[in-house]
Design a protein that fits this description.
By secondary structure, the chain is α/β, with parallel strands linked by helices. Helices cover 31% and strands 17% of the residues. It starts with a strand and ends with a helix.
Length: 310
């Protein structure tokens, strides 16, 4: 397939917008992970995304918008929801809100739900591309469904090269794990997916945030029900050291095959997580992983590890 790697220029944005208008798929970096983007209103393009990822049709996609006005066209925001996004957008926060009557995100992209997941990413390429295109772009992570998300251009080329028309090069993603998803519809907001936005910061706006580990009955994102982020290797979590034959993915000082963060920094660990899992997965059949403190974005890291180990 004729696939081209683009840098951020006006000409390339125009080219990518044309490709999107004709139903094409674009690989693009965000601050969290690389996404596989398409016109959120185009059913044929969205069907191509589900097919390229092998994603079950009941698992809805996130729509990326460039500004609050576009978000308000797509979803109905309570005053509290607006305060939350005002504080954290652009950034790694996705909110689930009720679909607005003016919404353009297709039924297929929303998996038939009457809600829509929206975010403004903190990255120039998706913001400029959404603006140039003139409407929301759906962009799930650019990996086959159930596999490890991509945080470099090369990961996307390896996993999705055959399915993408164009890809923007954004180097290595700054955050490294996906956005934090909040259900902002009800009286009480609920954490659906812990991610790169520290949930403690959300509690500054919403002290009564429902967190799943405190409430097993809490609502779930359709995607949270699935085994995910899975390498081919077997994972052993909370391991203090490697057993014979195992690779050791460390955190903090000490011997390790690879180390998520020698200085024990959670941001650094999140940024390295998917690349290091991919690298170890290529060479080992068993990977032992150091305990990661379950605070701040450590919750997001542990969520990914737990589901990868299922
Ligand atoms: O950081 C991210 O969020 C990345 C980048 C590319 O923006 N995108 C991403 O998309 O992680 P994806 O498709 O891999 O994950 C989307 C998650 C799924 O777990 C899905 O179930 C959930 O969002 N979701 C989407 N729409 C929803 C809705 N209406 N209600 C509840 N969950 C929803
Ligand atoms: Mg994903």
């Amino acid at each position: 397939m004729d696939m081209r790697i683009l840098n951020l220029t006006d000409e390339n944005l125009e080219l990518a917008a044309r490709v999107l208008r004709s139903g094409g798929l674009i690989g693009l970096p965000t601050e969290t992970v690389y996404g596989l983007a398409a016109d959120a209103a185009n059913d044929a393009a969205i069907a191509r995304i589900y097919q390229a990822k092998g994603r079950p049709k009941f698992n809805p996609l996130i729509a990326h918008v460039s500004d609050i006005e576009m978000a308000l066209q797509e979803g109905i925001f309570s005053r509290e929801a607006l305060a939350l996004v005002d504080k954290h957008w652009p950034g790694p926060l996705t909110v689930v809100v009720k679909v607005a009557p003016t919404g353009t995100v297709s039924d297929l992209a929303r998996a038939g739900l009457d809600s829509v997941a929206l975010r403004i990413p903190a990255h120039a390429i998706p913001i400029f591309l959404v603006r140039e295109f003139g409407g929301p772009l759906v962009a799930p992570s650019a990996n086959p469904s159930g596999k490890i998300s991509p945080t470099t251009l090369q990961h996307v080329l390896d996993d999705m090269g055959d399915h993408i028309d164009l890809i923007f090069n954004g180097g290595t993603c700054a955050a490294g794990i996906e956005s934090t998803i909040i259900d902002a519809r009800g009286e009480r907001p609920a954490l659906l997916r812990p991610g790169s936005l520290d949930p403690d910061w959300i509690e500054e706006t919403w002290p009564d945030l429902i967190r799943p580990e405190l409430n097993p009955e809490a609502p779930q994102s359709p995607g949270q029900l699935l085994r995910h982020y899975a390498p081919n290797a077997t994972l052993r979590l909370n391991a203090e050291a490697a057993e014979p034959g195992e690779a050791y993915l460390g955190f903090g000082e000490g011997p390790a095959t690879l180390n998520l963060s020698e200085r024990g920094n959670l941001e650094e660990a999140a940024k390295n997580l998917f690349s290091m899992l991919r690298a170890l997965d290529a060479d080992y059949e068993r990977i032992a992983i150091a305990p990661i403190p379950n605070v701040g974005i450590g919750e997001g890291i542990n969520d990914r590890l737990t589901r990868a180990a299922k």
